Amino acid sequence: MEVKLIAHTQLSEDFLYELSKRSYEVFFDLTEDKITDGQAVALTAIRTCYSHNKPSEIISKEANKYFYRDATDGQGGTEADRLIRHIVSSKHLSTLEHLTFTFAIEGVSRALLAQLTRHRVGFSFSVQSQRYCRFGSDDKSGGFRYVVPPSVEQNDHARREYELAMIEIQKLYDELRFLGVPPEDARFVLPQSATCNLVMTANLRALLDFYGKRRKGRGSQWEIAELAEQLREAVVAVEPWADPFFEQA
Fold first, then answer.
1. Are strands 2-8 and 195-203 parallel, antiparallel or unpaired?
2. 214 is an active site residue
3. Which of the residues 214, 215, 218, 232 is marked catalytic?
4. How far is CA 55 from CA 41, 85, 90, 197, 239, in A?
């Protein structure tokens, strides 16, 4: 399995240009990642619900109060961190839906895909097709690839039987294609262990909910639990302030 962050919420060039004219200090800190774009969007969304200022002006007019003052709740960080903590604890989570993340998820099983796509609210999926992508031994793919569960990997006899089964399935797929069966029908013999690639976009609220349900130690199957951890790592790499909320999820 490999998870790569393709894109995430970014402030527009027009917004940054206007901000540079109103508050160069905040503009500089945003461009230097001392304040992340996600924090700016989150604060804008949160404060829009309670402020008389226009959403486009909240960062320039309220940054000093929130980004440049220590948190008053004694939990560390800035007042912006305190505000976001308060919003999360009060379940006003719609404000976090404005932060989105797009991932390339590669080499996961179809079994995982079935579990993953049960999470619908706040998620979008584009999945490699077994109809249009051919998985014959002589095709560009070189045959289908598959995931081996740890419980099989750690048992020598089970591993041999498992691999023999995969070889036979490949032979059957190839034979069906040789006999003129189209890929969309030949794929019916491919196992749940067959790998696939997908692009997934999700907002931060949806990701926190997903992580809370699928994280390690919550009874989830090993593969989707590992996915949950890798998604968290990818998000936190660009929005470090979000890490405690995954931990609390």
1. unpaired
2. yes
3. 214
4. 10, 20, 22, 38, 21
